[in-house]
Every structure is written in structure tokens, then in C-alpha cells.
Design goal:
By secondary structure, this protein is an alpha+beta fold. The chain contains 2 helices and 4 strands. The chain has helices at 35-50, 72-78; strands spanning 2-4, 11-16, 19-24, 56-61.
Length: 89
């Protein structure tokens, strides 16, 4: 089974042969996490949780370098805890 996300998404998911590849897709910002990417990761997790026959998940970034950080606005909001699903704040 092959399953692909549509282009332009902040988080892309491809599933083939029981292996999912999750790609953080914000290369212009070295894949720094923002609200849209957090929402994309939640959606990806939901999608992967429903995938049958999934054996592995590989996470990668769509840039020559990777910055494991979030934007300041997201960081300050997450100090109080993760947002509720569907929240835009």
C-alpha cells in the first residue's frame, strides 16, 4: 500500500510497505516548529495510529540542516501545556 500527503503541507506523510516517512516541511526556516506544524504532527499521529500493518516510522526534515526548535510564539504557548485539538492558539 502506498499513501502520500498532498504537496505544500507542513508535515508530509508517506506510507509504503509498512514504513511511514514523516517529513517536516518548512525548509526555509530549517523546519522550526510552528503552530501549523504542531497541528500537522498531531494529524500525522492520528493518521499513523489508524494505519494497518505499520512497522516503523522514520522522521526527517526537508532542509539541508535541521533546527530542533520551535518559534518563540509557539514555545511560550506550550509552556502552559499543549493546545487542545482543533485549537488555533
Amino acid at each position: 500500500m502506498q499513501d502520500k500527503s498532498s504537496p505544500g503541507e507542513r508535515v508530509k506523510v508517506e506510507i509504503a510497505d509498512g514504513i511511514a516517512e514523516v517529513t517536516l516541511n518548512r525548509p526555509d526556516k530549517l523546519n522550526a516548529l510552528d503552530s501549523a506544524m504542531f497541528e500537522g504532527l498531531i494529524a500525522a499521529g492520528d493518521r499513523l495510529g489508524r494505519a494497518r500493518g505499520l512497522r516503523a516510522v522514520v522522521m526527517t526534515g526537508a532542509a539541508a540542516a535541521f533546527a530542533p526548535a520551535s518559534t518563540r510564539s509557539v514555545s511560550s504557548r506550550w509552556r502552559a501545556g499543549p493546545p487542545k485539538r482543533g485549537s488555533t492558539t
